[in-house]
Amino acid sequence: MIKIQPLIALLFLGSCVAHAQQTPSMSGGEKPKPAQSGVFAGLGKDRPADAKTEILANKEATFDNAASVAEFTGSVIVRDPQFTLTCDRLKVTLSKSRKGMEMVEASGNVVIIQENTDKSGKTSKAIGKAGLATYVPETGEITLKSWPSVQQNMNTQVGTEEGTVMFLNRSGKSRTVGPSKTVISDTSEASK
After folding, report:
1. What is the SS3 string spanning the chain?
2. 82, 119, 145, 162 from 92: Cα distances, Å
3. 158-161 CB contacts, 8 Å cutoff, 24+ apart
4. Which pLDDT score, from 0 to 100, does residue 44 have?
5. What is the pLDDT of residue 152?
6. CA distances from 134 to 4, 99, 147, 169 (A)
7. In the prediction, which pLDDT does 109 show?
């Protein structure tokens, strides 16, 4: 198993370098921003200063300096304080300035898991699955293709055809294009 840490403290989905540079630091009397809601909404939150991202790849890790591309293949696992990602192949394209990422693409058996804890201590879990997932830090948009599905706690949305596409962003908004099935579970005390 290949273990790569140094390069990718800038990796996937979690307010990576490009977004972190746009987020003001919390100092003095500034108040924290309110928690966001929605699937993968916490991906836009401030990244801890000492955060580390670990990427494990069973087959290969390559870096093309001229193209500003890093690729990982073979049962890839990305462990980050804000999410866990598994896939068959991961490709990271750095921005031309090399101060962040231009795009991240995960393909083959993609599973993204994010857990958030609100102020009351209640934990919520979001799971996204697809054959292909892309993330563009500039827009904060995640695109899930090839049989996409998203589960947040007990609620689910599943693409019912391979061509269905799901768009999610860090503000908590989502959009599905193509046939899908949505199941919303009532978990209120009144329904029990």
Report:
1. CEEECCCCCCCCCCCCHHHHCCCCCCCCCCCCCCCCCCCCHHHHCCCCCCCCCEEEECCEEEEECCCCEEEEEEEEEEEECCEEEEEEEEEEEECCCCCCEEEEEEEEEEEEEEEEECCCCCEEEEEEEEEEEEEECCCCEEEEECCCEEEECCEEEEECCCCCEEEEECCCCEEEECCEEEECCCCCHHHC
2. 18, 33, 18, 24
3. 158/182
4. 46
5. 86
6. 21, 19, 14, 11
7. 96
Q: Tell me how crowded residue 185 is: count the other CB atoms within 10 A of its CB.
A: 9
- pLDDT for 146 equals 97
The amino acid that residue 88 corresponds to is D
In CATH terms, is domain 2-28+40-191 a member of 2.60.450.10? yes
Q: Point out the residues of the chain with pLDDT beneath 70.
A: 1-48, 187-192
Cα–Cα distance list, 153 to 26, 71, 97, 192 (Å): 30, 32, 39, 17
Q: What does the pLDDT look like over 78-101, one tens digit per residue?
A: 988 888 999 999 999 988 877 778
Q: Please give the single-letter amino acid code of residue 166.
A: M
